[in-house]
Specification:
By secondary structure, this protein is mostly helical. Helices cover about 60% and strands about 0% of the residues.
Length: about 220
């Protein structure tokens, strides 16, 4: 997946010079050493992970290292399912955002890496137990197609779940600084019900569809962006 690839490309590199001013990174020379130390889940792991979180959303390199480190801690529970791994990565991104905002509960006696990875994994399992699977939906479907009276209540419910999950994924992209896809989604939603579109609106509609088709699968899953 893209996250692992990003980590692999930088794994042998020295840690960024800006990080070296933080004494919590003392003794860590490369990204590989940093990831390995975080996965040890000890006192040093807590210090390093806290230092990366403190870098905030403005430091993309810190985010990649955090997510790559934590993903491997629970990836073994995914049973080889790429969908589960993707779901876990998404939930880890949400947990990281919670840590940035100070909304991550800390539990006495537990290591930060375990708290964050278990929180993300728990949400993946909860979603599975609730049966929140996705239904294939055409990106060009009109609102009436998605709410047709010929569809069963179960189909309609699954559609709502699929769209809700996709919206959450879009919002994560917005938070991570990828604005083009969220803007395309907002434009498509705003113009989908418009009956008489102006020339400008038609151009906006066609452009939004091109962006969505390029970055979204037929299962309403984000492609590698």
């Amino acid at each position: 997946m893209a996250l692992e690839s990003a980590a692999t490309r930088t794994i042998a590199r020295p840690i960024p010079s800006a990080w070296r001013n933080d004494e919590r990174f003392a003794g860590v020379e490369t990204v590989e050493q940093l990831i390995s130390a975080i996965r040890d889940c000890d006192g040093r792991s807590d210090r390093l992970l806290s230092a990366l979180i403190d870098r905030g959303p403005g430091d993309p390199a810190a985010s990649v290292v955090v997510l790559a480190s934590l993903l491997r801690l629970r990836a073994g529970r995914c049973g080889g399912s790429s969908q589960r791994v993707d779901a876990l990565a998404g939930e880890l991104a949400v947990v990281l955002a919670e840590a940035w905002s100070g909304d991550l509960p800390r539990q006495a006696g537990r290591r930060l890496a375990n708290v964050m990875s278990d929180r993300a994994w728990g949400r993946v399992r909860t979603a599975e137990l609730k049966g929140s699977w996705m239904e294939r939906l055409p990106l060009d479907a009109a609102p009436g197609d998605c709410a047709s009276q010929d569809r069963s209540p179960e189909d309609i419910a699954v559609t709502h779940v699929a769209v809700a999950q996709f919206r959450e994924a879009i919002e994560r992209q917005r938070y991570l600084g990828n604005g083009s896809l969220p803007r395309a989604w907002d434009t498509a939603v705003a113009l989908s019900a418009a009956e008489d579109r102006s020339a400008t609106q038609r151009n906006q509609w066609h452009y939004a569809r091109r962006v969505l088709r390029r970055h979204v699968s037929p299962d309403l899953e984000l492609l590698d962006i």
